[in-house]
Design brief:
Blueprint (H helix, E strand, L loop, with lengths): L7 E5 L15 E5 L11 H11 L12 H10 L6 H4 L6 H11 L12 H15 L9 H4 L2 H4 L5 E4 L21 H5 L11 H4 L7 E4 L19 H12 L6 E4 L6 H11 L7 E3 L7 H11 L6 E3 L7 H13 L5 E3 L6 H12 L7 E3 L7 H13 L5 E3 L6 H12 L7 E3 L7 H24 L7
Parallel strand pairs: 3-4, 4-5, 5-6, 6-7, 7-8, 8-9, 9-10, 10-11
Antiparallel strand pairs: 1-2
Helix pairs in contact: 1-2, 4-5, 10-11, 11-12, 12-13, 13-14, 14-15, 15-16, 16-17
Length: about 450
């Protein structure tokens, strides 16, 4: 046992003054030790672990330590160590949790497969991409990170791409119009960072969410900052074609028009894994929708979102024609387009034969009674659809009554949105009652027959 250091030192010294009493003993003086403390001298093991943690960057010793010693070293490591040292050496989740919480305020690992290490590398890579300025930022910032993060990145969400800095700015037009063409006229196109070298080197990448634009540009706003160029589209299309494990592609709010849609589709045909495609809030018209229709039957798509585009009846008819033969799609969103009754009826006819689609959203498409008429037949015959949204249309009182009639024997529909569809309050209430009863029946059935647990 190690003993605490002595608090006092007793020294025998000759007295400077005559002794008060005659005797054989000398006078003793007690001197206080200012460095004395109750702490014991650290064990040699502790001193070694402190040294390892302090010099970890130069000499990363970890695997050769005992488990209890490794734990102590990891708890003492700085979160500012270079990733070249820690990425492939440290798998401890507590260390990466400290890295995440020390860098970002909001940290929800449920979106990252419950992995702190995955969260750190995905968000770290996303931050680099959001701040990358072509022709200014060193591309090695991204390329050197690939071998460090490639085993952990499964999803990338990049909602900003910065354009290159333009040195020679042309004089602004005297015309103060806010139209897009006025701002873009005479300006050379600006291309963004090419993701090809990156995403094709990430073997586990399954989801890619992209928006080409600049966030928070404030008074520096220009339409040119939100231009997804032909070259950008070509680079992205070639890259996703080689991402063989990609399951979800979302390219939103990026001015994707018909030509760019067709370019993307050409490279997505027969993709082995893609199950979700989201091209919402773009500029896709009928020709782009026709290309997407071809993709439906040459892919494994389960979810298709074309919300808020410029698709009219010809595009909707092309999608409907593919839907009639499709056997994989379960969700279709065409909200905020202009398919009108010609497109609505085509989609309804397709659903008379389709047996896989479960959800369709046709809100705000200028639909009226003819569409309601065909969908009343769909409700009577289709046993797969569980969700329909007709909100913000003009189905009218007669259209509402026909939907109610078709729904009379339907046991599958559990959601039916008819808000602002002008079907009448009473009809909407009766439809709601039937849908609610279907929903309760499904709920009770799931309680009586819970799904079997995976072996």
């Amino acid at each position: 046992m190690q003993q605490p250091a002595a608090r006092h030192r007793s020294t025998a010294i000759p007295s400077l003054y005559p002794p008060l009493a005659v005797g054989p003993y000398c006078t003793h003086r007690v001197i206080e030790d200012p460095e004395w403390c109750l702490a014991t001298v650290p064990h040699l093991t502790e001193l070694c672990l402190q040294h390892i943690a302090h010099n970890f960057e130069k000499n990363p010793i970890l695997d050769r330590l005992l488990p209890e010693h490794r734990r102590k070293v990891l708890d003492r490591l700085s979160t500012g160590l270079p990733l070249a040292v820690t990425a492939n050496l440290i798998s401890d989740e507590n260390y990466w949790k400290r890295c995440c919480t020390g860098r970002w305020q909001a940290c929800d690992i449920s979106n990252y497969g419950e992995s702190w290490k995955r969260m750190f590398f995905e968000r770290h890579l996303e931050n680099i991409l959001k701040c990358f300025i072509p022709n200014t930022t060193d591309p090695n910032q991204v390329l050197e990170l690939i071998p460090l993060c490639k085993d952990y990145v499964r999803k990338l969400e990049v909602d900003q791409f910065l354009p290159p800095v333009q040195v020679d700015q042309k004089e602004e037009s005297d015309d103060l119009s806010d139209s897009e063409s006025d701002f873009e006229f005479g300006k050379a196109p600006v291309h963004h960072y090419d993701l090809g070298a990156l995403i094709t080197a990430l073997p586990h990448l399954e989801e890619l969410h992209l928006t080409y634009g600049v966030k928070g540009c404030g008074m520096n706003f220009e339409w040119n900052l939100f231009n997804f160029t032909h070259q950008d589209c070509s680079n992205l299309a070639l890259a996703v074609k080689k991402c063989y494990n990609l399951k979800v592609l979302k390219l939103t709010r990026s001015k994707v028009d018909d030509d760019k849609t067709r370019m993307l589709v050409r490279n997505l045909l027969d993709h082995p894994c893609l199950v979700e495609l989201n091209l919402s809030h773009n500029l896709i018209g009928d020709k782009g929708a026709q290309a997407v229709g071809k993709l439906l039957n040459r892919s494994r798509l389960e979810t298709l979102n074309l919300c808020n585009n410029q698709i009219r009846h010809l595009g909707a008819q092309a999608v409907a024609q593919a839907l009639a033969e499709n056997s994989t799609l379960t969700s279709l969103n065409l909200r905020l387009n202009q398919v009108e009754d010609e497109g609505g009826k085509a989609l309804g006819h397709a659903l008379l034969t389709n047996t896989t689609l479960k959800s369709i959203h046709l809100g705000s498409n200028n639909l009226s009674e003819p569409t309601a008429t065909i969908f009343s037949q769909v409700l009577a015959l289709n046993t797969t659809l569980t969700r329909i949204n007709f909100s913000c249309n003009h189905l009218g009182l007669d259209g509402g009554k026909q939907l109610l009639h078709g729904l009379a024997e339907n046991k599958a529909l559990t959601e039916f949105d008819l808000r602002l569809a002008e079907v009448g309050q009473e009809t909407e209430y009766l439809i709601h009652q039937i849908v609610w009863a279907n929903r309760e029946a499904v709920r009770l059935g799931s309680l009586q027959h819970p799904p079997a647990e995976p072996r």
